[in-house]
Specification:
Blueprint lengths: L4 H19 L6 E2 H11 L4 H5 L5 H14 L9 E2 L14 H10 L6 H14 L10 H15 L11 H9 L4 H8 L2
Parallel strand pairs: 1-2
Helix pairs in contact: 1-2, 1-4, 1-6, 7-8, 8-9
Length: about 180
Amino acid sequence: MKVTETDVTIAAAFYPILVECARQSPVKKLTYGALLDEAKVRFPNNDAVQSAIPISLGRRLDVVRIFLAEQKLPNLTSLIVNAGTGEVGVAFGSDAERIRAEVAAFDWSTVSDEFNLHISSLRKNIKPRSRPKISSEAARNLMSEYYLGNRASIPKGLESKRNKIIEMIREGLSPEEAFAKAVP
């Protein structure tokens, strides 16, 4: 599975919620929507979490599943159920009740550091998405529009960096980012 920064960020938000559900007696099951709602409450400033939708959460939970499988740990994702059936999907493939009993019996405090290391490792291996290069003319137009709209706040002396700003915009930076990087 090719993991994205968004996958990792959302999985990192979900993991502590899943662990808390595992520590309750009986273990607490959540729907995909309830899991996402809880993450949004806990991470109000996290853009990836705030823009997530329930339909894409299986992919994000796969990041958690991969860690659990590598560490030979009970599958915490057995706590996430379909709103319609109240149970895991057919693709889960195992006896969810038995796995939830294993989840409940496990001491999750012993692996929180390992999960954080797993997330850090995944982040190091994520290749940045390449931004499409735009034409010189389009970059010049974007630069001009930004300059005209923000002339009062742009420091004097950036005229000499015009070509550098255009090239940064061509490479995919926003005009705001390009101007900010060009400031000495």
